[in-house]
Each structure stands twice: as C-alpha cells, then as structure tokens.
Amino acid sequence: MANLNTQSFSSLVSNFATAVQGAAASLVDFTVGAVLLAIDEATAGVALWLQGLILQVAALTRAATSNGPDLDSWFAQFGFARLPAIAATTQESFGRFTPTNQALISVGAIAQTADGTVQFTAIADTTNAAYSAAQNGYVLPAGQASVNVTVQCSTPGTAGNVSLGALNTLGTAISGVDYVSNAAAVTNGAAAESDAAARARFVLFIASLDAGTLQAVYNAIASVQIGMTGIIAENRQYNGQSQNGYFTAIINDGNGTATSTEIANASKAIEAVRPLCSTYGVHAPNQLNVTISLTITTASGFVHSTVAALVQAAISAYVNSIATTSDGATLPYSNIATQAYGVAGVTNVTGVLVNGGTADLSITFQQSFRAGAITVS
Prior knowledge:
InterPro entries: Barrel_Baseplate_J-like (IPR006949), Baseplate_J-like_C (IPR058530), Phage_Baseplate_Assmbl_Protein (IPR052399)
Distance between the termini: 53 Å
Signal peptide: 1-19
Domain Baseplate protein J-like barrel: 96-189
Keywords: Signal
Domain Baseplate J-like C-terminal: 290-377
C-alpha cells in the first residue's frame, strides 16, 4: 500500500489554526480556554477518527494488508479459502496387567495427558488388524497384554503434537484396560494455513484459473491439505521413460511420503484441472534413508553431549529440508560438516560418513531424502 500522508492530532490542530489565522484580518485568539481553540481541537479529534477509518478500510481492501478473518473474507470473494488445521494422529497402546479376558476399545474411547488438557479419541481404522467394524472398536484378545489403537486429537492443530509417553491417562473407563501410552512423539498435527502461506497460494490460485496449465496442477496439489507439495515430471512416466502427453506427479505430505488416501485426493484434484487428452500418474516419493556418522571436538566451556545433540538435530533438519525437483536432488557430502560447524561450540569435525561413504548422494525425481540414524561422537 502506498504511503498515505497522515497527520497527528497536534498537526491537525496546528494546521486548523494556521488556516484560520491566514484568512483573518486581525489576530485570532487560540490561547488555552479560547472558544476557537476548543472548536479546533474538537474538529481535529473527529478528523483523526475519520483518518483511522480510512486507513482501516484501505488495509482491508487488499490481501497484502489484511489479516486473519479479514483476509478470509477477502479471499471469499474469489471462492478461495485457507486450508484448515490438521488433527494429530498416532498409535496409542491400550494395555492391562492381567490379560485374562477379551477387551474392546470402542471408537470414541479417550486417551489424554495427565492434566487432561490434550485428549485423543479412538477412531475407526480399517488398516489396523485389531479393528473390528462389526464391534465398532479394537479387540484386545484374551492372553494379550496390549493393543495399538489409532487415535486422533480432539483439537485440530499443533496442540496434539505431544512428546513420547505424554498420552498416559485413560479418559474413558474401559473394562479390561488398565493403562495407555504413546510409544512415539506425535508430530503430524498442523495449524491452519498461515496468512503468509495463504497469500502465496492465492497467487498460485489466480495463475491457475486457466485450467490445464502446469500452475493449475501445482495449485491442485497444494490445495489438498496443509503442507502438501508436488513435483511434476512432464512427458515422463514414473520409470523415467519418455512419453509425450503424460506427466508424473510425485506428491509429498510434508513428511517425505504420502498415504494412499492422500494420493487418491491429489489424483481427484489433478483430474479436475488436467489438460484435455493428457494422462498422468500420481505417486508418493520413495524415501532414501540417510545415515550419517561424524566426530566433533567441542570448545572448553561447552558440554560435549549437549553440543552433539544440537549437531544431530541440525544435520537431521538439513537432510529433511532438501527438496526434490523434476531433475532429482543432491545431498553434498561437504555440507554435513558445514552444518556441524554452524553449531556453537564445535571446533573440529572429522570422520564424516554419509551412508558409509564420503561422496555426494544423488536421487531421482521419484525419491526424497529422509534423515535416518545420525551418530555424533
């Protein structure tokens, strides 16, 4: 938005007085308590209020300066909406001390944190072998101590991203079940699309309104859910063989992979905008696990184990951040040491091995890098 020539209360009062004095034939009284000064200040107050309204309206008429609900209402004029929050899901272990009789964990059963602020509810999951559609729940057979149940956070967003073992309290009394626990940290909850991300996707949306373009396909993939991205290999089959009129879409849900449901949803979105007479395939990336080992030397005054943990986290984040393009991607061997040196307290890095070697790693467009075991000695 262009810079507007706004005025403060004092400048409005001063300009009023200057205009009146300039038009008067004799000196006008603007001392404290004078009637004309009172009129001047009252007028300046109204002008300041009107100026504020004008600035607010000017901000609301543009996506670049609107925020929150105002931005949503601006988007709604174009039939565009921000992507909603994603509720975290995980596998929760429901167990007992005496596995005598069969137990049933019904859909809707609650596991929660000790203080009850975060609750997860058991949901139907036909891919889970323990789930019984007939009984609408998960069967814990006689003689078995525990069973893994698919649960989903009751509150969409990042509130469900809890640490290992945090879901340790039964929120629903279940006959034959004594305790619950999550064996892994929960990390797949996502907040609703931010203002900045929605604005960026809106630009892609506008560019895609002529369906049948590359931008239309990218927008279709990005609009499936929070964090989903894709790469398009034009005139290429999934195996890399050339085929005119065919394109391969590799989608990524933000975790370096994609579920069968996400692939189906992306396919449906692409089908709505694909060019006439074109064919395509939608696939999840094949993850290449990257194992890394290295030895660091730390400066005096630093705790070696603490620095090592920070190096491990930095390298893991770097590996997972490498984006694959239609030409593939490369993980430069030398960058591993660079990430380590970027951590405060590291004075030397030696013995770097990437997947057991000392060379760059390269992948094709069908793959994605995923950090595996990172060992920092």
